[in-house]
């Protein structure tokens, strides 16, 4: 059964692969599962029909027959549990990989979301520069700790896992800020993620959606 | 084998049950698993010995023989997978409960963490009042959506699950702000969580740690 995911009809990141459907597309490509995409306008995301699938009116959702899931982390974990390729077979290694999934989303991503708040909602405020500096320092603290743990390893704990998939996805959100380049091993780690064939296929597919939306403009 | 978790020797919340070891204690009580606690000073948390267990130098960690986990969400999920009582048996219901775990930590908690940043790090800033209002509105947006989805149900999706355990734990962090009382069904939901015998045992145990630290003062 081919699952269906939802994605932005016109992503606010202009096809840079930072919207959360990218995490699910990447996981689907890693496990070799074909899928369909239903595109949503910003208005449609807030309608009752979509809120029935996603209580917070966001993308992505994941439909597989009667099963409806939301939260990209949960969808990636579901795919990793149903297919080989994203979690180790060994139970202890598997639990550790899941620790990294939660670390990406609950420890590393929050200050990065805060940076987006500052950049997009506080740029015209009197406190913009000061808050920007505070938030960047909070991100540096996490990146420094992550860089220390990664060391010269390719991935966070043995082979590439769903933990790396989510961590790379989160780190990509600070790539243009220059912060990632302060930690060369993290920049190389992210580049390794981006070089994976599954990532490249997923990236091309989400970019094609944005380009189609652009082409439809008059 | 009795697992060992780590917790603050002296919790900054003064025993109000908001530190993240509480989530793990509650899960352990729900599944009836006895455990030991190793208490850490703030200095010890940043030492290499603890960072080897937790790359971000935080609590809680979870040790079960050779297995070491960090991230309270991952630890709760591990407990839910190894014991009955925190996830439904049905595969689809189980995947949906895990969606709520991620929703608690990656969608509802980030603006709540932001409120803590404003309250503790920005109270003396010129922008304090304005930022406080912005952050409270961001939290209200999420609470309104959650309140709408919960409706008059007892729990988020059928029986109490690890998704409820984490969501109640996250919502408890805004209880004293008064925001929760703007959504009576959410306030009642949190009260249902707090009334569970497992929650009460876990709460008493973490409070006893704080009271012992107080008693040790001269």
Name some characteristics of this structure.
homodimer, 218 residues, alpha+beta, Glutaredoxin, 2 domains, four-stranded mixed β-sheet, 9 helices, globular
Give me a quick take on this structure.
Two copies of one chain form a homodimer. Helix content of chain A is 57%, strand content 8%.
What would you say this structure looks like, in words?
The structure is a homodimer of 218-residue chains. By secondary structure, the first copy, chain A, is α+β, with helices and mostly antiparallel strands. Chain A has two domains: 4-85 and 198-215, Glutaredoxin, CATH 3.40.30; 91-196, Glutathione S-transferase Yfyf (Class Pi), Chain A, domain 2 (Up-down Bundle). In chain A, 57% of the residues lie in helices and 8% in strands. Chain A has nine helices and four strands; from the N terminus they run βαβααββαααααα. In chain A, strands 2-1-3-4 form a four-stranded mixed beta sheet. In chain A, strand 3 and strand 4 (67-70) form a beta hairpin. In chain A, helix 5 packs antiparallel against helix 6 (128-150). The N and C termini of chain A lie far apart (37 Å). The interface between A and B is large, with 45 and 45 residues.
């Amino acid at each position: 059964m081919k699952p269906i995911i939802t994605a932005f009809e016109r992503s606010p990141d202009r096809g840079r692969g930072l919207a959360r459907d990218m995490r699910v597309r990447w996981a689907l490509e890693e496990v070799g599962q074909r899928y369909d995409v239903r595109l949503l306008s910003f208005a449609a995301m807030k309608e009752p029909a979509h809120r029935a699938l996603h209580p917070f009116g966001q993308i992505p959702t994941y439909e597989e027959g009667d099963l409806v899931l939301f939260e990209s982390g949960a969808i990636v974990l579901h795919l990793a549990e149903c297919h080989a390729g994203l979690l180790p077979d060994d139970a202890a290694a598997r639990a550790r990989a899941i620790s990294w999934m939660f670390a990406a989303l609950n420890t590393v991503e929050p200050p990065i979301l805060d940076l987006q708040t500052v950049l997009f909602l506080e740029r015209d405020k009197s406190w913009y520069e000061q808050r920007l500096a505070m938030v960047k320092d909070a991100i540096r603290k996490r990146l420094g700790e992550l860089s220390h743990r990664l060391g010269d390893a390719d991935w966070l704990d043995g082979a590439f896992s769903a933990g790396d998939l989510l961590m790379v996805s989160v780190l990509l959100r600070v790539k243009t800020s220059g912060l990632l380049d302060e930690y060369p091993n993290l920049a190389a780690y992210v580049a390794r993620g981006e070089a994976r064939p599954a990532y490249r296929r997923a990236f091309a597919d989400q970019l094609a959606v944005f380009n189609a939306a652009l082409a439809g403009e008059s």
